[in-house]
C-alpha cells in the first residue's frame, strides 16, 4: 500500500508554495531501517503468503458484474480465516481491507457496493495482512475480460517494470539501481512513472524506511541495500501524464488527464546474493 501520509515529494513535484512540512508524516515519522532476523523473516513469509493467496483468489474470481465491495468482503474474510488481520482497515482511517482502483484511479480507491466492475476495466487491487506482528503487502492489476490494446500493454509493462526493479535487488546494491531500471523500462514503452507515491520498507509497521522510489532523484536518500531488509517495491504507471489529484473522499488518487493507470507490488527480502519475493503468487 502506498498510503498518502507516506508520500515523499520533491520540490519539483509540488508547487513551490507547498512545503515538505505540510505533507503529513514526512520527517517526524521517519524511523531507522530495520534488518529482520531469521525468525522475523519466517513470520513475514507467512504474512506475505496470506496476501499472495488472497490476491490470487481475487484475480481468479473477478468478473464483470461484481462490485469492488464484493472483492473487499472476500479479502477480509480470507485474511481473517488464515489467522491474520487486514493491514489496511482502519489505517489512518482507511475504511476497507483492500484498495480497489479502477481505470484512471491510480491508488487508494475505496471499495463500494455501487461500483460495478465492467468488461474492459483495468482494476488495481492492493492489500496487506498483519500476522504475528508483521505485515505483508502486495498489489496486482487485473485486466477484466477483453481490454483495449493500450490497456493490455500498460498492464504488461507495469508488471515487467516491477520485475526489472526486483532484479536489481541484492546486498550492496542501491535504491537508484532499482529506480533507474524501473524508469527506463516504463519510459522506453511510452508510459510515465507516477512520482507522487513511492514504495517503502515493510515489517513491524506497514510503512517503514526506506522509501523505495521508482524514478531517479537526488531528493531522497540513495540507500545501500543490506541483507535482511524487506521492501515493498511498487511501480505505478500512467498511460498519459504522471501527475495525479486526490478526489473529495480524501483517499482516491486519479490521473489528471483521465488516462489509465496500472500498478504491481511485491514484498521482497534482500539477500546476500539477490532477493526472495515473499508475496509470490505462483507459490500459493
How would you describe the overall organization of this protein?
This protein has 284 residues and is an alpha+beta fold. It has one domain (33-283): Creatinase/methionine aminopeptidase superfamily (Creatine Amidinohydrolase, Alpha-Beta Complex). The protein contains four helices and 15 strands. The protein has helices at residues 38-61, 68-81, 149-166, 175-188, and strands spanning 85-86, 98-102, 105-107, 122-131, 134-143, 192-193, 199-201, 208-212, 230-233, 236-238, 244-246, 253-255, 261-263, 266-271, 274-277. The strands form four sheets. It has a five-stranded antiparallel sheet with strand order 8-7-9-14-15.
Q: How would the blueprint of this fold be written?
A:
Blueprint: H1 38-61, H2 68-81, E1 85-86, E2 98-102, E3 105-107, E4 122-131, E5 134-143, H3 149-166, H4 175-188, E6 192-193, E7 199-201, E8 208-212, E9 230-233, E10 236-238, E11 244-246, E12 253-255, E13 261-263, E14 266-271, E15 274-277
Helix pairs in contact: 1-2, 3-4
Amino acid at each position: 500500500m502506498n498510503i498518502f501520509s507516506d508520500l515523499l515529494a520533491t520540490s519539483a513535484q509540488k508547487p513551490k508554495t507547498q512545503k515538505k512540512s505540510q505533507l503529513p508524516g514526512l520527517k517526524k515519522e521517519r524511523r531507522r531501517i530495520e534488518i529482520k532476523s531469521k525468525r522475523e523473516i519466517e513470520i513475514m513469509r507467512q504474512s506475505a503468503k496470506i496476501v499472495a493467496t488472497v490476491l490470487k483468489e481475487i484475480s481468479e474470481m473477478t468478473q464483470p458484474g461484481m462490485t469492488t465491495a464484493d472483492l473487499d468482503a472476500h479479502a477480509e474474510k480470507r485474511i481473517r480465516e488464515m489467522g491474520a488481520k487486514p493491514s489496511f482497515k482502519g489505517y489512518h482511517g482507511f475504511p476497507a481491507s483492500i484498495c480497489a482502483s479502477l481505470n484512471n484511479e491510480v491508488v487508494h480507491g475505496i471499495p463500494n457496493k455501487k461500483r460495478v466492475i465492467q468488461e474492459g476495466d483495468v482494476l488495481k487491487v492492493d492489500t496487506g495482512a498483519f500476522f504475528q506482528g508483521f505485515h505483508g503487502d502486495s498489489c496486482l492489476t487485473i485486466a477484466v475480460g477483453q481490454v483495449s490494446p493500450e490497456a493490455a500493454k500498460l498492464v504488461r509493462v507495469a508488471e515487467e517494470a516491477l520485475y526489472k526493479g526486483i532484479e536489481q535487488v541484492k546486498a550492496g546494491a542501491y535504491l537508484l539501481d532499482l529506480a533507474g531500471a524501473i524508469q527506463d523500462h516504463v519510459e522506453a514503452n511510452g508510459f510515465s512513472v507516477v512520482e507522487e507515491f513511492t514504495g517503502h520498507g515493510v515489517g513491524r509497521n506497514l510503512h517503514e524506511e526506506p522509501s523505495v522510489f521508482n524514478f531517479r532523484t537526488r531528493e531522497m536518500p540513495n540507500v545501500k541495500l543490506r541483507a535482511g531488509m524487506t521492501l515493498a517495491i511498487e511501480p505505478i504507471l500512467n498511460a498519459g501524464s504522471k501527475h495525479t489529484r486526490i478526489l473529495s473522499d480524501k483517499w482516491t488518487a486519479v490521473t489528471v488527464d483521465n488516462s489509465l493507470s496500472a500498478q504491481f507490488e511485491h514484498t521482497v527480502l534482500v539477500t546476500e546474493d539477490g532477493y526472495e519475493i515473499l508475496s509470490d503468487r505462483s507459490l500459493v
